[in-house]
Amino acid sequence: DGGITQSPKYLFRKEGQNVTLSCEQNLNHDAMYWYRQDPGQGLRLIYYSQIVNDFQKGDIAEGYSVSREKKESFPLTVTSAQKNPTAFYLCASSSLTQGSLAKNIQYFGAGTRLSVL
Amino acid sequence: EDKVVQSPLSLVVHEGDTVTLNCSYEVTNFRSLLWYKQEKKAPTFLFMLTSSGIEKKSGRLSSILDKKELFSILNITATQTGDSAVYLCAVEVLYGGATNKLIFGTGTLLAVQP
Question: Do A114 and A20 form a contact (C-beta atoms < 8 A)?
């Protein structure tokens, strides 16, 4: 099955700890994205990557880091500098090479819920 | 600042009812408007709209865009309990040069009662 796999589903972070959320896709998509979802707020963009070994900050990148060493993988690290990490994290991907109307449709994984101990 | 506003925030209906969800936006560099359905976890894609006045339809769901008045509606007819979900509206805008990004509204929580 083609899709986006996020792991783990639930994650707990201790104070001062860095944690890494995994995102893998087998859709052969070029672009990948990380969003944060909080109650009463829309999804907010943390980081995105359009090509391997390149990524850009989104609107709320502070306290987060990413890497894109493979096309299929875009892990997100929540660092100890992120003071309010409790949220639902969603990873998405899109093809930048499909027909012009479809290429920017983003498809989402099932998410990781991060809580602070 | 780019903004997407959805209304109502939540809605409770009975099976068989018809519902209309609203999405208004104020953005620069509009490219398209997308609707997603989120049932607890992954948002799933419903529609992408780029042109005014052209209805997109999939089964009991339909959507239309008005680029002059800057809004879209999502209609669901003959609602079923399986339609219960958060419906997200997102506007695609040009961002940082050649990149596009999605700006999301807060969503409408729809509960369909038997």
Answer: no
